Amino acid sequence: MNRRSTPEVDFGIYLRGLGLLLRHPAIIVVPLLAALVSVLLAQVGQLFTDPLGSAGGGIISFLQQLAFGFAFGVATLYANDLQRGYRTNFDSVWNEALGKAGAILMATVGFVFVISVAATVGSLLGAVGVYGLQLVAAFFLIYTIPAGAISGLSGPLAISASIRAVREHSARAIVLAVIFVFLWGVLPQLVIYRMLTLTANPLLFQIVPAVVQALVFAYLAFPFAKNYDDVAPRGYR
Asked: What is the pLDDT of residue 4?
């Protein structure tokens, strides 16, 4: 192993992460801001991107992904400091994140680019190919943003670190990926289905799921940070 001896899958972090989130709610701030920015961009997009058609929608989607990627990077930094036992606070994490903003954003761009390429290639195989290749790409790139935030690695280096960590510790990555898909993809949809019985306000259908996603990001920052910190290739820690 290239790191200190650790369990192949640390299930405890998923429970500890909840406790840390409750004790340090400031970690939610930037993901929540990103969620609100995402909703605002969606509203602005409906007003100003019609002349651009799908290209306009693509620009809005890319900006939303950048916002969430940076927010997740900030939350991961915060979570990593807490789990290492550092005396930290929002201001110090924010200043560190600003210093690594380029790396975090380029890691996000790299992640989005590879997923987009996977979707394009997969389209040659139909719908199954699109989703299948995107899932495979996302799995191997699961640590890309933590690599940008924690290790300060940019674009290709963050992608390389993620792929190597996943290959060497696949069980951890599988558990993390399954929990991520449920909390990020399934849970907001369950919230929307529940809202259908409570309200018909279209704006709430954007705001409430976005807030749920922000809370999910804040929570997931803990297992992502801990898993990456445990398995990051030598020299990337």
From this structure: 47
Task: Report the first-to-last Cα separation within the chain, whole angstroms.
Answer: 14
**H or E element in which residue 59 lies:** helix 54-83
pLDDT computed for residue 85 by the predictor: 86
Q: Check: CB of residue 179 under 8 Å from CB of residue 156.
A: no
For the chain, count helices (H), then strands (E). 11, 0
Q: Which of 16, 3, 31 is nearest to 97 (CA)?
A: 31
**234's torsion region: left (phi>0), alpha (psi -120 to 50) or beta?**
beta
* Whole-number Å distance between alpha carbons of 1 and 227: 15
Give the residues of the chain that fall short of pLDDT 50: 1-4
pTM: 0.86
Residues 165, 231 contacting (CB under 8 angstroms): yes
What distance in Å separates the CA atoms of residue 55 and residue 53, rounded to the nearest whole number?
5
Chain centre distance of CA 207:
18
CA distance 85 to 102: 26
pLDDT in tens, 138-151: 999 999 999 999 99
String of DSSP letters for 112-126: HHHHHHHHHHHGGG-
